[in-house]
Amino acid sequence: MRLGLSALVCFFSFVWLSECAPPTCYSRALGLSKEVMTLLDKIHTYHRTKQCAEVLPTIFLDVHNSCVTTKLRDFLYVVLNHPSQYCRELPRMVLLKRKIQNLYTIITRICYRDLVFFTNDCEAIDTGHSRPYYAEDRLQLLQEDR
Looking at the whole model, is its pTM more than 0.90? Predict the structure, then answer.
């Protein structure tokens, strides 16, 4: 009975491990951008870090936007050079700095030329609202419908 139970446990552990795939550059960048956005939301709402967040610019990360690298670089500069020493040493701000550095490194060095950018809308990273992008074939269809 024990042998059958241990064999069953081993079988299901192998099945579970076989379904797991190593993270790709894209999945890691996407996951890390979501983590940064979640952490930023916590920093903006938590009473100890709320005043530190007032200095931070608004950012809506989208790894499909080609402007993400320059906006991340600018955001990282603000986090690294925060005017308050107290804010720079807070654990959540240190974690934010580390995650943004990792994301910037992944996008600019590790995944260089692996990520595909669908838009070039820098305003969307600042506001969170993106304009619709129509490719030439879509524009031609729109003109024909009129």
Answer: no
pLDDT tens, residue by residue, 45-66: 999 999 999 999 888 888 887 8
Q: Strand, coil or helix: what is 88?
A: helix
Q: H helices within the chain, ranges in order?
A: 2-19, 25-45, 50-53, 68-80, 85-89, 91-105, 122-127, 136-145
Residue closest to 24 by CA, chosen among 100, 112, 111, 86: 111
Residue 142 tokens read as: 């729109």
* Distance of alpha carbon 101 from alpha carbon 97, whole angstroms: 6
pLDDT of residue 102 exceeding 90, the answer is yes
